[in-house]
Write a structure and sequence with these properties.
Length: about 650
Amino acid sequence: MGMKDKFQFPRVGNLLLVLAGASFLAYLFFPRSNNIPERTLTPYSEFLTRVNNGEVSQVKLANQLILYQLKSPLEGLKAPEGFNIPDSPVSVPQNSQNPFHTAPEADQNQYPLRQQGTILATIPINDPNLATTLQAKGVTFEAAPPPQNAWFSTLLAWVVPPLILVAAMQYFLHDDSRRSLAFNKNLAKVYDGESTRITFSDIAGAEEAKTELKEIVEFLKEPDRFNRIGAKIPKGILLVGPPGTGKTLLAKAVAGEAEVTFFSISASEFVELFVGTGAARVRDLFKQAKEQAPCIIFIDELDAIGKSRSSSNVASGSSDEREQTLNQLLTEMDGFDAKESVIIILGATNRPETLDRALLRPGRFDRQVLVDRPDLAGRLAILEIYAQKVQIEEDVDLKVIATQTPGFAGADLANLVNEAALLAARNHREKVSQADLKEAIERVIAGLERKSRVLSDKEKKIVAYHEVGHALVGAIMSDGKKVEKITIVPRGSSALGYALYTPTEDRFLSSEKELCDRIASLLGGRAAEEIVFGSVTDGAFSDLQRATDIAEDMVTLYGMSKVLGPLAYERQPENNFLGNGGASMRRFVSEETSKVIDKEVRQLVEQGYEQAKTILTQNRELLEIIAQKLLVTEVVEGEELQMLLAKCKLS
């Protein structure tokens, strides 16, 4: 298609819309013009009075107007323009408010008002006795005949708009740039091999996943090498992992490395209001893919249509739209030969436990590739990639930033670098500094600073002792974390202050003692409030929730209770990448066992609380020193904080 053709289609569409609008306006206004002057319009009551008095000689009746002629002309009142009596005939447009508009070229046999006298008009009302009254008074009356140009109004009203709408629909349905208006057409974005410039070198922190997907790239480049030996590459590969770990980016990188066409669509785009639309779009997607093979089809958020049918509330065999779409997808995946049409289907989800078993059987999505959160080396590599996209100072140590961001996914690290760049630009600096990156970490973790939230002196004092209590207990505990900063500057929606911890190393296992120490650290703030003020506040509600959750997991999931033994009393789904979120479910246990579980959980929390109180009581003087310093400076960090925490002791 040339450049001229590209601009021709929009002009055709605009022309169709203009014609439709013009015909509609013409139908509304053109046939409804009124040429009867107001001085010739009389009240209906006056018309009836003249009829009863015998002053009316002739009447013409229409739906919207009554025109009548008096037996003698009225002095000082001329006939309306267009009604030259008796020479000019009167044409009667059926749809006009003035059905007696005079047309000089009209036929003389079109019922003119032949008698001398003034012509007047009135607006009709629903009067069923009018014909009887006129006949009794000897008045000649007749209905207005249809006009000679009635075909024009009919054409405007019933023929032209439907034709224009049909033409517009045909135009939109056949124009690829407006394919989204066709309900049965797939909505996938199509990228050719040249436009997909993302490669594996643009991705870091997912080395195992990249190694697994390189085999797919080799198959797309050299399918004959695999076919000669009889090897079959999986048709479907499922990328699973937490949100933000780069599943979509990896799919684009596969297409970029193989330099093949890439179809990208979200599973939710298959489902529409109209039944059968999703299945039709699946068929159209695979039809286009077969025409452009070798290619890759990427379906993001596959669980939107791939949820297990056994857990659905819809009865088996129903016409549920998602179920029809899933059935069509299963059929299409079985309906093409990998040797004839080289099509690789990549799916992505962070809820693999909810997918239908038929979708995961061999021959469909039979290979799962885990894309997990990066470790320390992976976070450092990701930061180096994104740091190249901004101006950064030479003395920035990205390894320190990577150490302070455990659990961050690739998207979180990208947002971190962007936040640091925004901070530098806001402060009118040309490059991003180490301080900007540290501040960005706090913004991501705790939220924005809220300096407008002014605390009273009493509240500020409570917050200071609370946070120092966390820091002192955390400094003693061996839960693998280090206190980096204490602040009483409010952040986010609820944090009035916080103690920032950073892990000393990446940890994947936690011992029973480390979990107990973590509970004690969480309760250090509440313990400090009780020791210093003799009472507690509601500021520790989130600490209590987290401490209780850890204790309950120790008892019901990890089997760390000496009373209950090594048994699991809760079921937790595998591959739950979205966090617990209430997903775990308590097994059916007796009332006695439930009481024992509650007793054990309470004992663990109380034990951690007493441990925290013991540490703070033994370091009461140090608690006072750090709290008073925090009230003055609002932030204590760095070497100064480490020197103070090093004085904390536990006998």
